[in-house]
Amino acid sequence: MMIRRLTQLLIGLYLYGASMAFLLRAGLGLDPWDVFHQGLSHHVGLSFGMLVNLVGAVVLLLWIPLRQRPGVGTVANVLVIGTSVDLTMMILPAVEDFAVRVGLLLGGVALNGIAGAMYIGAGLGPGPRDGLMTGLVRRTGWSIRLVRIGIELAVLVLGWLLGGTVGVGTVLYALAIGPLVQTFLPLFMIPEHNRRAQKTAAVNP
């Protein structure tokens, strides 16, 4: 069972990074954290994927005062997703055709939902950014919705100011990712970890 969970986790994380590369190539808007990653990449000499990993590691350090405990999936998240983005960008060429870009946007959002359901369903720990959110909720007593909106609005505005791409894809992602993860999650949940995975999914989309 553990082998299945680890395999599902790693495949999910890799596909999650690949979906981010699709959205980057589409150039029609990114999710809030990736707007921040992209904006930051314009000002430092590191690849987008490397910054995804480094920002994840920094966010993970913020778990310490929040007394959050990382899982295997948390560490794998920091190591795999950004690496997958860079690898996918190497083999996925830039595109000019608008119809192809729209296809990449739609495919990227759909793949992101599937990949998110896969790694959540493995039940091996939340990603650093999700853990930051749940840790702040526990420590402050504020609602999940308030904390999530606050964090994502902050990184979105900062990323936009740094030059990250905000567009129709940003709105589409915000509206679609929750329902997509909820739709695909039952296909990937490991039975004895259903309750934990459902709790994670409730705050992740």
Automatic annotation (TrEMBL):
Transmembrane spans: 45-64, 71-92, 98-121, 142-162, 168-190
Pfam families, alphabetized: DUF6198 (PF19700)
Keywords: Membrane, Transmembrane, Transmembrane helix
Entry keyword Membrane: yes
Entry-linked PANTHER family: INTEGRAL MEMBRANE PROTEIN (PTHR40078:SF1), INTEGRAL MEMBRANE PROTEIN-RELATED (PTHR40078)
Name of the protein described by the UniProt record: YitT family protein
Organism whose genome encodes this protein: Phenylobacterium kunshanense
Upper lineage: Bacteria, Pseudomonadati, Pseudomonadota, Alphaproteobacteria, Caulobacterales
